[in-house]
Amino acid sequence: MKCPLLLPLLLLGTVSSLYLQNDASHLGSREADLSQDLEGSGEQEGELALNYGVLESEEEEAVASSYQDAFEDEEAMESDPAALDKDLQCPKEEDTIQLPGSPGCKTCSLLLVQTPKKFRKAQNICRKCYRGNLISIHNYNFNHRIQCWVSRINQAQVWIGGFVRAWGNRFCWTDGSSWNFGHWVPGQPGNGRGRCVALGIRGGHWQRARCRSRLPFVCSF
Questions:
Q1: Which of the two residues, 28 and 208, has the higher pLDDT score?
Q2: What's the pTM?
């Protein structure tokens, strides 16, 4: 008489066991998914950290480059006669072109040196070799004449004597004359980089350039 009651109890125990196994399986699956999510999150955090590290590195390099440019530009603007290179060699005659002087100044001479030099080296050559300076320009007519004269060479720009002083952040000429004229490319000098001034062969517009760039130059003496 007891056997009929035992069978349902056995069936109920089997079903319960199956439900427990399924729950355990689902729980294990969820734990695995959570583990994968955590691992993926860790990888993403690692990638973000790496990206931030790259950005910080690039920013540091940009700042370092900016400081290096400023340092080299400041060096390039040095024109103290006592600091002239002892081993400086004057340009050969075939590397220069004599330009007509300024009206009303018979003693003024202009010389285009075709050999590209850094700004400082160019200024030192003007001082040591010709007892002059890089050219200063004070009106449009003279600027146009210089542009026409230098257009014969196969170069995009030439150095003129303008530069930005580190103190006061103002433009000056290497010969000490007043800064009373400008013929800038649109957007400059405000948006330009570099602390030295170059004259463009086409159009005669001025542009800020890094003083360590090597360009032909015009001496006035």
A1: 208
A2: 0.64
